[in-house]
Each structure stands twice: as structure tokens, then as C-alpha cells.
Amino acid sequence: MLDSDGKKNVEARLKRALGQVSGIQRMVDDDRYCVDVLLQISAARAALAKVSKLLLESHIHTCVAGAFDGDDQSEREAKIAELVRVFEKNCSC
């Protein structure tokens, strides 16, 4: 889980990303130049990727580390499988 500072950071980044997406919608509504819209989409993706990185880092430091500190082998294996699923969904490898 996120600590209070981490949560504030994630919330601020999500609000910023939401603002970017709203701006993209306005740009489309206003028939703005396609390349400008595409650049804003890239910026919104980057903002969400940063949020994803922060959440993943927190998850590894808390939930995953806790599973590996414990004695439950099945819990460790479950966390490994979970991380593999996350990486499959979030990276192009």
C-alpha cells in the first residue's frame, strides 16, 4: 500500500493526467491539428506510465517484500505470478 506521501503524489499525478485527457477531448472537439493531439496523447500516456511505476514500486516494497519475508512458499509463488502478469500487461516484452 502507498504511504500518505506516495498517495498524495499518485493522486496529484492522476489529476494531472485527467486534466490532460480533458484537454485532449477539447482539442478533438475544436478540430485541432492531429499532430498536436497525438503529442498530448503521448504526454497523457507518459503521465499514466509514471503513476504505474510508482504503484508498482510501492507494491514491490510492501506486498511482495512481505511475501518474501514470510515462510509461505505458495504466497511467494503467487506474488511472482502476479508480477509476471503485471509485466505482461504493461511492457512490450
Question: Care to describe what's here?
Answer:
The protein has 93 residues and is mainly alpha-helical. The chain has one domain (4-90): Up-down Bundle (Methane Monooxygenase Hydroxylase, Chain G, domain 1), CATH 1.20.58.1000. It contains three helices and no strands. It has helices at residues 4-29, 34-69, 73-90. The longest helix is centred in the middle third of the chain and has 36 residues, at 34-69. It is elongated, with a radius of gyration of 18 Å. The model has no long low-confidence stretch (mean pLDDT 93).
Radius of gyration: 18 Å
Number of strands: 0
At CATH's second level, what is the architecture?
Up-down Bundle
Percent helix among the residues?
over 70%
State the CATH class: Mainly Alpha
**Mean pLDDT, rounded to whole units?**
93
Number of individual domains: 1
> Which class of secondary structure composition applies to the elements?
mainly alpha
